[in-house]
Amino acid sequence: MRMRFEDQRIRLVNELKLEGITSPVVLNAFAKVPREYYVLPEYRDYAYQNRPLPIKEGQTISQPLMIAIMLQLLDLQPTDIVLEIGTGSGYQSALLAEIVKEVCTVERLETLSLNAQKILRNAGYNNIYFRIGDGYSGWQKAYPPHKEFDKILVSAAAREVPKHLVEQLKTGGKMAIPIGKTGFQILYIVTKTEDGLDIAEAGGCSFVPLVCDDKTLR
Ligand code: SAH
Known about the structure:
This protein has one domain: Vaccinia Virus protein VP39 (Rossmann fold), CATH 3.40.50.150. Helices cover 28% and strands 27% of the residues. It is built from six helices and nine strands; from the N terminus they run ααββαβαβαββαβββ. It has helices at residues 5-18, 24-32, 64-73, 91-99, 110-122, 163-167; strands at 53-54, 60-61, 81-85, 102-107, 128-132, 149-154, 169-181, 184-193, 196-205. The chain is globular and about 55 Å long. The chain binds S-adenosyl-L-homocysteine.
């Protein structure tokens, strides 16, 4: 017989601890959000395996450990306003919404965004705002009228740090962004300081590409 999802979720949290995740807010968020809601029905039995899984449109729901690493490195605060690029399944949006004040999330594929919006609304989140469009241009929406964010999380692989995302990061703010070619990238933590950008490497990773529809936005 299959373990109950609740028990599988506890097991995943323990696995994240063994892998070096120590942030109580991050572990708590993983203990709360049911990943089985965000995967395709045919993959529900694999929802708590620590790996990425296919979602619609040839995209993936990120690996739990990879999300946990990014969330931990971002040093999220309950007062933070966060910009997420690549809504995808909405799973990471839910984890963020458990920890911070507001999440503004951008997805270029309408089908995925609408699907995530439905699941997240049903789950009761009222601190997540959605935009369908190219994340290279950042938020760009009248409501909520944020021009700058405390944290930015890019969950697809970029070729460079998008200039509009740097503009929309507060001084003192942090951005997690995988940079590199298809297949393998390096995760970078970019901190915006008074003097410019402080860029730190945080290990290897593998994300689907951040698609650039309009090259002038790069
Ligand atoms: N955190 C998500 C990751 C989804 S995969 C999850 O765990 O489900 C990355 C997503 O980024 C895909 O849905 C893809 O369509 C989206 N994406 C790719 N390029 C983009 C762009 N330029 N702007 C916005 N979203 C983009």
